[in-house]
Amino acid sequence: ASVRRKGPKMKRRWQESTIVRERIREMFVAFGLILALGVIFGYVFFLPLTWPTRLALALTVYALASRVAILRYFFGGVGGIEAPKWLLYVTSFGQGLVVLLFILALIRLLAFGLCFLFSLGPGTWGRFFLAAKSVIFAPYGSVGLLILASLLSAQALYQAGRVPKVVKTEIALSSWPQALNGLTLAILADAHISRFFDRPWVEEVVKRTMAEKPDLILLPGDLVDGSVSQRADDVAPLANLKAPYGVYAIDGNHEYYSGLLEWLPVFEKLGLKTLSNSHVVIFPKGSPLVLAGVTDLTALEPRFNLPGPDLAKALDGAPNAPVILMEHRPVRARLNAKDPRVILQLSGHTHGGMLPILKTLVARVNDGFVVGCYNVADLKLFVAPGLGLWNGFPMRLFDPSEISFLTIYST
């Protein structure tokens, strides 16, 4: 009888997860199609090649633009893509090349339109832009775009995959007790431990963090991409994270994709105290400090149906002391600022924007917050650029990763 009662529930969950997977696949197929069409009509068709060659290039462009959907189909993955690391690197370079060619092709089309418009002007001015218009789509111009896109893609992949450097920032808080001046926090956001960011990378991140001897280590979400069985060896070095006042973590959206409930006991065994709508009171230098954490908004999705972020619950029973809040996404900072007890919010999720043009879009969907420090009423928000990236889109260009260190002083 018990099997019969559980059967429909399990079937419903399987059906829901199947629908979600199909929607994700459709999204990436559509994304790949848009990218591919932009590059094909904005670049490939202007190359001085035969039509069969252009067609072959167009198919290659579409395959690279649809990298996520194709790799997921052949290799699968929970949270991340479980393809061999060398294949992730090769296809990531190709994907980056297509993305950057798409951007450069749009810029070239815009430049062509402007030159055409100005070429209608009189005299020398018009003749100059008429000549410029004819140069824009010359064969050597297309070769130049390809070289530039290749160099930028290689740089973006390098910046994404390297072990991040330690970056130290000092912040001043008006409600910060003078007794706690100089408290140093290590912020390890968005590690995305996966096939791409594997054990050797994690070991070096831990080594660089511990070399700075932080007072407190905080991990504000998106720690893993993959199931416990897939990532158990890769996350093992996190057990070496030690700090005088503890090591604390919260969940991000990728923990839910990777099986949050299975990961929570693993985090505890690694020495990472997870704050899920809860708080702890620590006493650095003998002065009380409340450290709170809330869950990610992803918890509210029907496929997970878990408690969403609840600041009131997280601070229930907390003493009258300054509060440092960890919330994975920065988007609720203005809401959190309404509670006068919260003086500092630590977030990640945005990866610093990743690319110059994409950075603007990332900011728009995160209420204007993308990287660095922000004043939100009486609350100070720090959005960490993060350590790693989801291996479906490992690109960073002029938005480098970092191991963020915050040293706090009173104003």
Q: Main β-sheet: number of strands, strand sense, barrel status?
A: 6 strands, mixed
What global shape is seen? globular
Give the averaged pLDDT, no decimals. Answer: 89
- Enumerate the strands of the largest sheet in spatial order, edge to edge or round the barrel: 1-12-2-3-4-5
Distance between the termini: 65 Å
**Percent range of helical residues:** 40-55%
Secondary-structure element pattern, one letter each: HHHHHHEEHEHEHHEEEHEHEHEEE
Structural class designation: alpha/beta
As a whole number of angstroms, the C-alpha radius of gyration is: 24 Å
Q: How much strand content do the residues show? A: 15-25%
Question: How many beta-strand elements?
Answer: 12
The count of helical stretches stands at 13
Unreliable runs, pLDDT <50, ≥5 residues? 1-21
